[in-house]
Every structure is written in C-alpha cells, then in structure tokens.
Amino acid sequence: MEEEQSKIRNFVIISHVDHGKSTLADRFLEITGAVAKDKLGPQYLDTMELEKERGITIKMQPVRMEYNGYILNLIDTPGHVDFNYEVSRSLEAVEGAILLVDVMQGIQAQTLANLDLARKHNLAIIPAINKIDLPGAAVDDACLELARLLNVSPDDVFAVSAKTGQNVGNLLDTVIKKIPAPSGDCQKPLRALVFGSKYDSYQGVIAYVRIIDGRVDSGDKLFLIQNHLECFAKETGYFKPQLQKSNGLKTGEIGYIATGVKNPEKVRVGETITLNSAFNEKTKTFLVQPLAGYDEPKPMIFASIYPENPDDFDLLKTALAKLKLNDPSFVFEPELKEFLGRGYRCGFLGTLHAEIICERLFREFGLNLIISSPSVIYKITNVKGEELKIYTTSDWPDASQIKESYEPWVRLEIVAPIDYLGSISDLVKDFGGVYVNTDYVAEKILLIYEIPLRRIISGFYDSLKNVSQGYASMNYQIVGYRSSKLVKLEILIAGKKEEAFAKIVPEEEVFAQGRAISAKLKEKLPPQMFALPIQAVIGGKVIARETLGAKRRDVTAPLYGGDVTRKNKLLKQQKEGKKKLAARSQINIPPQVFLEMFKSS
Ligand SMILES: Nc1nc2c(ncn2[C@@H]2O[C@H](COP(=O)(O)OP(=O)(O)OP(=O)(O)O)[C@@H](O)[C@H]2O)c(=O)[nH]1
Ligand SMILES: [Mg+2]
Fold first, then answer.
1. What are the pLDDT digits (tens) for 483-511?
2. How far, in Å, is the centroid of ligand 2 from the Cα of 80?
C-alpha cells in the first residue's frame, strides 16, 4: 500500500433520526477547517431546501476533510427509515462508522437496524453518546446501555456534545486510530463503485464514486461494465462538500467523476466504472471483475402521479428520470387511466419518502401534480381464478370480478422503555396488530407484533410517538400476504368521481373511513363558486356526505386597490382559470390539496 493510501480514512455517521449526525459533522468540518467558521450554518451538509425546512437529512452527503496529514472522507447519512437505502449505499464506500446515540433517547429502532447493516459490511464501529450538554443528561447510564449493546467496555464509548464540541476532537482522533485505511490495489486497473449520482445539465451524469482499485485521471476513457457504455472522465474531483476539481482520483479515495452522459438512466448506482484500456482485445473481456453492486430497493407503497396540466407529461417524465438519478430508491412506470389521463405509477419506501419526492417535483421542476391516495401492494384472485397484484387504487377491479383479496402484513419491531409497555400494546391492538414476542435490548424492551402494512402507513407512527412521549421507535419488514375483505371506497365531488381520493379499505372500516375522508376534504378544499356535495360511495351507495360551501374569492383583495393594470390582469387570470376549470371538471382542486390528503391518509 502506498504511503498516501495509508493516510486515508473513510467513514459514516449512523444513528436513529435526529440523534445529531449532521451537527456532529458540522463540528468535524470546523475542527478540520474544511469550512470557514463564518460560513458554517447549523447542519451545513443538509444542503437541500427541504432538508433545512424540515430539519432532517434526506440525502447522504460525502465531504472530504484534511486533518493532521490525513484525508478524512465522511459521509453523513439520513436517520429516517424511509431513506435507509441512502445508508446502505454509503456503507459500501467506507471502512468504519460512528454509531451515535442521543443521551436522552438511548438506543432506538434505527440504532439497531443501522448497526446491523454496519456489521454486515464488517465496518469498524466507534460508539458515541451525543448531546451530553443537555441538562439532566444521564451520561453514564447511556454509555452503559450502548456498551452492553455492543459488548464493549463503557470506557470505549465516547460521550460528546455535537453542539458545544465537547470531546469531539478526541472522537476524530479515534476515527484515525481505529478505522483501517482502505485496502485495494493501486497497481490494478481501475474499479470505481458508483454509490450515488446527480444530474448536471452541462456535465451530464456526475457519478459519486469510491475508487476500489487503480486510479482514474481527468480525461481518461472509461467503460461502465454493467451498462456496457463508453464515456470519458470530463472532470474528476472531491466533495468539499461543493464539487472541487482534481487531476484524478486514486485507490481508496471518494470523489466524483463527471461522465458527460446525458441520459440519466445509463449510469446506475452500484455500477462499476473501469478504464476502456482494461479491455483485452484477444479475449474480448475486461481485465476486471465488476463489483457486487447493490440490492434493488423494495418499494412499500405506491401512488399514481399525474401532471395537473396534461401538457406537462413529458416534463414529468424527464423530471422523474433526473430525480431517480439523485434518489435511486423510487420506481416509476407510465400508466393511462380513464379519469386521470397520462401519468406514472410510482413506488416509494414509505409515505415520507413519497411526500418528499412530490415536493421535489414541485420545487425543482415546477410541476403541479395530482397524487392519488397511497396504497400498499394488494393481491386478489379474480373470478377466473387468476392471481393479480394491485399496485394503485385505480387498478382495483370491479367488486363483481373479485373472488378473494389479500393484503401484506409486516413484522413490526418496537423499541421502547419498559414503562410504555401497557400503552403500546393497547395501541397496537387498536390498529389490528397481533402480539408475537417480547425481547430485551440492553435496558429496553423490544416488542414484536404482526400488523397489516396498510395500518403502518396510515398514522401509526405518529400515534406510537404520542403514546410513548416520543420514546418508542419502530422498524418493519413484510412477512407475507393474508386474506382480508377489501373494498374500494370512491369519492364523488359535485357528482363526479375523483379517482385520486379513492381508497382501498377493509369492509368493516368503510363508514369510518368514508366519513373521515369527506370531512378532511371539506376542510382542505377552498370554497367553490357554488355549494357542492362531497360523497363517499361504496358500490353506488352513498355512505357519507359533506357539503362544501360557496364563496366567490376576491383575487384582488390583497392589492389594496392600488395598481389597476395588475388588478385587471388578475381578474383576467381568474376568468381564464374558470375556463380551465370548466374543461377539467366543475371544481377547483389546488395541487396542495392532493399532497395534504396524501399526508393525512
Ligand atoms: N443540545 C444538543 N442538541 C443537539 C446536539 N446535537 C444535535 N442537536 C440537536 O438535535 C437536533 C437534530 O440534529 P441533527 O444534527 O439534524 O440530527 P441528525 O441525526 O442529522 O438527523 P437526521 O439526519 O434527520 O437523522 C437538532 O435540533 C440539533 O440542534 C447536541 O450535542 N446537544
Ligand atoms: Mg442529519
């Protein structure tokens, strides 16, 4: 191994959501001088507007720091379970992990899940307790709990404050001591693992890479082994975290390669990049073996997404392809539906994930969307005896066609302090869950249940947080399909079917759900030009009804009568808006309402 390579450390920070990873990364950036102190706002690596607004990390973010003669490549990861694919991809690019635990919360479900992932990758793990500056923090107890989980001495657990910086310098020194330098052979031909990417209109696809073997220089001719694509390194560089050009990238380094490839679908995460010169003319094979790559993510929930303006269909298509490059964990397929038009059926890892993608389509691409209620993948057998998978509500066949219906169940793991055992088991029972087992992790209980996935995506997590004062956390995996009598609840507004609000529900819940959806719509929809009925309908029978009030909205009201041309323009716009309305339907449903209904379903 070359001297330079032995001075590289690649590591991630992993934890449950909100335990302070991005804040700890801030302190590392400060200590190493990677970012000037006056430029360093809180959670500096959360660069997306949505991340800042919501205070959560959505994307993993690599950053290169220099410290005491070492190159430190850190990847900050998200903690929310919906963005777990970001974590698992990051782990493949590093040799070690800081496992961070909030002193007030202790071990939580994603602490366990992410630790498990890190162990599967054989990473060196450095445990640390965070937020020790908080008044009343029981630091020793928290260290003991984490030490028990990892089977190490409590003295090996770091106690830090990412906020004040207390003990963070020692933690960084330990990263250098305990995490091994990257292995890999600098003499071999290039093998670079693509662990992320983004699209740039000038540079084409920018691949985030970890150089496993060999080196790449700016200008090199490249070959993408899995996709059989030739391209070249338009530019190489590092994450500072802004992209900073370099002459090349060497074994063990993390950086980017701008490929110039314009089709976002051609460069996939998990791809192995090698040099074109590694091709052996005689044997017609490459001198290198492709890397293992990544497992495909498994979408849990589906929704139909349609442009509000049908002319935006092509824009939606390119937007989805570009977003997928930045977030490979969602899937999409075109679909055509009678009541909706041309759009896409999209699969997501969870409801927050779906919400974030829809927000990004709006903010980054200016797309107003119609979004259907989220759905899990149901299965039915029809009267012909065929078994069908039903991804979205609009695919649900007529009741007369269905012989038997099935829904996915999950194994649900809840980690909580023992005091909340009673309230949690009551809650799970209310949500139709079945008790399986109780286990212990360090000082906490690990409760295992089975429950329909449908219940998990509709409000369960919020209720769990409520009954446990925020202390319980959860994780789930699909265990299989079980028979359930399901029906399609239709929603009619002004007598017209609004497919986006339809929902698949168990027969015994139709009345409650029908009432809930129509009441919610009444609350979310703006007053219309005429009073309109909102109806929930099962098989042609109305089971719930609300009336949406009428009010002529004065669009010029906020203008205090000042500017006449502007006033006229607005009135003209309103008139045109009404024309568009008449063409689409009787009612004006602002695009935010679809997202609001989606969130609350
Ligand atoms: N008092 C105190 N607050 C902290 C400390 N570290 C982080 N926080 C706060 O905890 C909250 C979450 O911090 P983040 O750094 O965003 O947590 P995260 O783990 O990156 O969150 P996700 O990426 O969404 O999982 C923020 O309000 C921080 O200000 C600490 O050491 N002390
Ligand atoms: Mg974060």
1. 999 999 999 998 888 988 999 999 999 99
2. 9
